[in-house]
Amino acid sequence: MLKRRRQPTRALREELRARGLVLTISGLGDEDSGGGLFLLDDEVERVDWLSTTGLYAADGLFLRLLWGPDLLVYDERGVVRYLRLDGLVDPHDVALDGDEIVVVSTGRNEILRYALSGELVERWTPGGEGDAWHLNNLLPSDGRLLCACFGRFAADRAWAESGAREGAGIVFDVRSQETVLAGLTSPHNPRRIPRGWLVCNSGTGEVLEFDELGTLRRGVELGGWTRGLTVLEDLLLVGVSARRDEGTPGATAELVVLDFESFEERERFALPCREIYDLALAPAAFAEGLRRGLRTNGRLEGELVQAAMFESVGVTPVRLWATGEPLPHEAMRSQVTAEVSSSMVAGARELIPCVVRNEGGAILTSSPPNPVSLSYRWYDGRRAISEGDRVRLPRALPPGTPIAIDLPLEVPLESGRYRLCVSLVQEHVAWFDEVDPRNGASSAVEVLG
Question: CA 44, CA 16: separation in Å to the nearest integer?
Answer without folding.
Answer: 13
